[in-house]
Prior knowledge:
The structure holds two protein chains of two kinds. Chain A has helices at residues 2-24, 30-50, 54-58, 66-72, 88-107, 111-128, 135-149, 158-167, 177-201, 205-208, 212-217, 234-254, 261-278, 282-292, 298-304, 325-329. Chain A has one domain (28-163, 176-312). Chain A has 16 helices and no strands. Chain A is mostly helical. Helix content of chain A is 63%, strand content 0%. Chain B folds into two domains: 9-61; 78-191, no CATH class. In chain B, 41% of the residues lie in helices and 18% in strands. Chain B has helices at 16-38, 46-61, 106-122, 129-147, 164-168, and strands spanning 78-86, 92-97, 151-159, 179-188. In chain B, strands 2-1-3-4 form a four-stranded antiparallel beta sheet, covered by helices on one side. Chain B is elongated, with a radius of gyration of 25 Å. The relative contact order of chain B is 0.10. Chains A and B meet through helix 1, helix 2, helix 4, helix 6 and helix 7 of A and helix 1, helix 2, helix 3, helix 4 and helix 5 of B.
Amino acid sequence: MMRLISMVRSWAAEVVAGWNRFWFEPADPATLGLIRICAGAMLFYTHLIWSLDLASFFGAHGWLAPEAVRLLQKDTYAWSYLWWLDSPASLWAAHIGALVVFALLTVGLFSRVASVLALVATLAYVNRVPGALFGLDQINVMLAMYLAVGPCGAAFSLDRWLESRKAGPSLAIQPRWSANLAIRLIQVHMCVIYLFAGTAKLTGPAWWDGTALWMALGNLEYQSLDMTWMADWPRLINLMTHVTVFWEIFYCALIWPRLTRPVMLLLAIPLHLGIAICLGMVTFGLVMLVGNLAFVAPGLVHAIWPWSTGQGRAGDPNQPPPRSKSATATRPAAIPNRPKRY
Amino acid sequence: MPTNPNIPPNTQQPAAAVRAILSVLIILHVLAVFIGPWAMPPQSSELAASCARLFQPYLESLGLANGYRFFAPEPGPSHLVRYEVTLPDGSQQQGVFPDRRQHKPRLLYHRYFMLSEFINTLENPNAPRDRAEAYAKSYAQHLAHLHQATQVKLYLRRHFVPRMSEVRQGMRLADKALYEEHPLGTFSERDEP
Lengths: 342, 193
């Protein structure tokens, strides 16, 4: 009995240690910094496009009249500060303010404040125009939320540049547990998104008979690239349809092992670029790829980032810690409690 | 968890108490992230709906009440809105949205596309009727305001996707046989709020 209790205790201790490593291990904020740039740019562009028809969507005489939207949002907690803005001048002032916030987020100036304001603005816009939204807006909200959670301006930002000007060029990027937390939340959220995107498709006969992709590619209103030549290649359409469903369903499992992660990420590229190029949803395709960046190791981000100093690569949440004693002994000093396993 | 005083606090794991509080928040948040799409109608269980009610304030205030059912259950026909407006002098104008030539860039086109798709979603027999009517009226009022029109007629145009075999036989995606249309309503000045 004592042995059983001891085994349970040991197991529980391992679970707690694993949980702490997963969520709270300090991590290099490089990946979060890259996501901030990409998501910030996407938020800026998404809202910049509203400028072309601002009054038609957000004005009192717009497509979505306040009474119609309120009927849809009756008894809900959806909120938006845009409801308070009656005049075109106040609407434009708030809109320009939001664009400035998204620009600040993108370049990483006053990142902490900008990230919170960006989340508030993003939610305000989506809650004002239900009916004009699609997947892009859902992912925009998700990324804005997690950028507000983590230190998104700790790397690749003007904040960081200004900080290093004061402290000198030797200032290293410090690993932070909050950077890891934000990245983990994006990772888990991406898994949930793909899981439901995949399982929902199982109720559609076209995803089983392999013609679903044709139904998307052959849809004239979506089409941005004529892919009707693929009607001559039904087996290829079938294959792409089945791969899409299986990839989405198994993403939540296969994105974690080091062995399968690169394959899953590589498959994400043609899938989302296909949506971007063929179905005219460039923004949606790209923003999904931005979400996938959460699984890219900070070390790789430093390697591809042209101005990276290479500092602060320690604490990579996507890399296993050294297993041997000698390797453990060389761990960076900034990571005092480096886990033995990942 | 031992801490090293020589290392900045933000580069270490947070203190045990902070970790415990954050852990509870993380569990609740991840649950909410899961419940959002799990409970999304029309296909959801009573259990899922009960959980969603519990998390409703959090889900809705943070924009987490999403189904993420992209192209599910399957990509279907697309929907457009055709409109006919009667001007004060009795003349008529008509148009369709989304309109590729008029709505540029592509993201703006997609916003208009979602407007027309949304009215189709509300036209679903299982959806509350008053919502579809309110949205159709809202679209009509906007068009009336835009054109200074006295009357607006709206039609929902459904555009089916041809089968692969039909395309192989020469059918074009814009073939007239692939369209069907039904009226959404006629709205006059009297409908103005």
